[in-house]
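Long-time lurker. I teach an intro course on protein structure, and each term I like to show students one example going from raw sequence to a predicted 3D structure in token notation. This year I'd like something fresh instead of my usual example. Would anyone be willing to generate the tokens for the chain below so I can use it in lecture? Attribution to the forum is fine with me.
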Amino acid sequence: IFNLITMIAKINNSPCTITPNFRAIKVASATNKLKKEVTKIDIYELTQDDYATLQKLKEKLDFKKIAPFVPKEGQKRWKDVLDYCIDQTINDSNNKTFIGVSRNKLCGILTYFKDGSTYTADGICSIPNGEKKTNLLGKTLLYHLFKIAHEDNAHSIKLEAVVDGPYDAISKYKELGFKRIEDIITTGNQKK
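-- Reply from a regular --
Happy to contribute to a lecture. Here you go:
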């Protein structure tokens, strides 16, 4: 069960290989600076050829190893969110998915779909590297989605934010211009 809220923000109107297993298309690059630390993030759009690799990743990732800085319950919730993003990518043909890569390592995922003139960020999750999360990964992926929606003259972007995860995602989304519009509870992929 995920405890989520739906948030909304208004909008003013080369194939390559990441690892031997991913076959995604590079769609953007970003260089971010936070407290003198520069982080380069490449954004790739996944193809159906990547779904088997995503499934293997879901089965293989051990959050005790990649997120030892987070308490055990937070690790479980983080893994649940990542699993949800992967499941939505694989099981919902309407979804498109971006992954973030930094220092040649997968560091995050964002899955989304378009419904009319609204884009919905269906799931977003960073993938830590054992020491910490990649700086500004979530904002970078969301910014890319904002760019796409803006170019498509979309009216809004919605997202469902996990409220009981290891980090305060709600405050971060509010900083980006999202506002709370409803509370929902889901069980797996079904909303209640």
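Some talking points for your students: The helical segments are 51-60, 63-66, 72-91, 137-151, 169-175. The CA atoms of residues 62 and 79 lie 8 Å apart.
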